[in-house]
Amino acid sequence: MFILVFGLFIAGCGKPPPQLAPQKPPEVTVAQPLVRTVPLTMEFQGVTRADATIAVRPRVQGFLMERPVDGGRLVKRGDLLFVIDQRPFVAAKDAALAEVAQRQAALKLAEIDLASRSKAFGNNAATQFEVDTATANRDAAKAQLDLAKARLTTAENDLGYTEIRAEIDGRLSAVLPNPGTLVGPSDILCSIVNDRVIFAQYRVPETTLIEMRKSNKNRRPGEDGRPTHPVLLTQGEDAGRQTFRGLFWRAETGIDVNAGSLLCEARYDNPTGGILPGTTVALQAILGQQEMLLLPDLAVLQDQAGRYVLTVVNSEGKQVVVRKNVVASNTIAGYRKIVGGLDPNDRVIVNGIQRARPGAQVTPTQQPLDDKALQQALEMSLREDGGAEIPTTAPAMPPSTAPTTQP
After folding, report:
1. pLDDT tens track for 209-249
2. Residues 6+ apart with CB under 8 A from 163
3. 8 A C-beta contact, residue 264 and residue 206
4. CATH topology (fold) of 195-288
């Protein structure tokens, strides 16, 4: 029995292990880069400001009696904002009217006296001194009337100042003083911000400015027949990102010696209030256009050596991943501009990147890139007018053809 079992054990040890089925190379999606005419841009960081911001102050002192509007509302120029107690100013106006009437009567009497003495002087019944005195009294009465009229004008103006109206179109600040508050010329009741036009301020470094002016023969856009260049404004991040198109508007006369840069402003129509004043924004000045390769931004990777993409090449009948270092610029509508290092016929991995390694074999599936959002953005950025919002959606990536887990 022992011999039989031992013999079976020896026989079992001699069997070869089962062979494992070879693993299929991981599947990836590849696409050729797009070739498009894209804007040449320079990027800056800027801060937005409203076209007009005013502080609303009373011109006279008194107690607030009415506040017809609430804070945070849109108002038109001339809308009534506050009413100061008018009773003291009505009384002052009435007193000024009475004084004018009194001075008019005094002037009339002085003119009658002058006429009477002048007639008596002609009949040798009055002296020249008496005529001169009557003339002076008439002139003094006339001056007193003019003074009374000026005081009446002041009283009428003060009465008008009790109604505080909006000087510009815009939006009121949120917090307003309540009726019953004592206010005066030193108090700020609220502010009005007209944000239907927005300016974005940004600084161009001195070295960059010199290069730009040299290439344009020291001319400024908009002053020599050339159209002023567009400036794209982007605020927010990810899903909340919005991009607006404006135009270069003006620049300071010289370099700020402390900052070493030139202060510039771009103008944006803002009819819906989408751009908020005081926001830090990303700006792209569009200075021209050039044909360039484009790839989805997610397909352009970066490590310590710089930016690169993973391509698939045919090597001895095998589809092998090859790293290609590239020179990349900024993005537009989710696509990264490739300045150098890539060929239009290269097959770049755009989906399944996590399953690809340089030198490894893969199973590629080629699909075209969805460039609808890119095309809309390019059409908008290459226009000559400004003020419109442009699409900012990221490009739709081709669907994955394999599981996302590493094989």
Report:
1. 887 777 666 666 666 555 678 898 998 876 678 889 999 99
2. 80, 82, 83, 84
3. no
4. Elongation Factor Tu (Ef-tu); domain 3 (2.40.30)
